[in-house]
Amino acid sequence: MLAIIGGSGLTQLASLEITRREVVRTPYGEPSGALTFGQVCDQAVVFLARHGYGHTIPPHLVNYRANLWALKHVGALGVISVASVGGIREDFGPGVLVVPDQIIDYTWGRKSTYFDALDQPVHHVDFTHPYDQALRQRLLRAAAAAGQAVHDGGVYATTQGPRLETAAEINRFERDGADLVGMTGMPEAVLARELELPYAAINVVANFAAGRASSEQGISFDSIEVVLHEAMLRVRCILDSLCVE
Ligand code: HPA
Question: Is 170 in the pocket of ligand 1 (CB under 6 A)?
């Protein structure tokens, strides 16, 4: 079974033939909502809306530990994250889809590990390649099968939010090598790694990041909604093709 965590613009999967919902209790508190189980073509899928089904949980307050633990607990064998981002690179404009391959973490104060007990041996996970290569390839093949253009690779900078960035912060992220900026990629990715859950993401560029191209006058939330709505239709097509093999 594959897990899909939907972000802004994707709070449900239209093509999911729902079989049941389950509220999972975890040692880390409440997940963002009930898990929705079903089928997308022949693939068993469990879906979770990262910000809650009413989109009320801001990025810095998402209970990432509960979300990933719950998905593992119900038997997910891999997690696909759908998340909107700002584009830093010139060719990552609104509407572009990216399957990132690297992460830089600028968040702070989030509960970002399961290994924080004082009475257990210290545990360090390898995180050289934060995204699972096989699951990334599967996403890329699904996109190709669906006839949808996606960029293969990109460095995702995770910021604390919920505010957007300053232009100087975006310049700094670019100097650091970041191509995209979002608020939820971490600690989600590392918690999946700690649970040994293969994890990959499909990022939807909602806007140029602060100070870039058309966002020089500031970022328009109305246009973000329009872009996300259209782009998520393409993301849905890709997710519908995940059963190609
Ligand atoms: N910055 C951070 N997160 C985002 C953005 C952005 O510009 N757009 C969508 N998510």
Answer: no
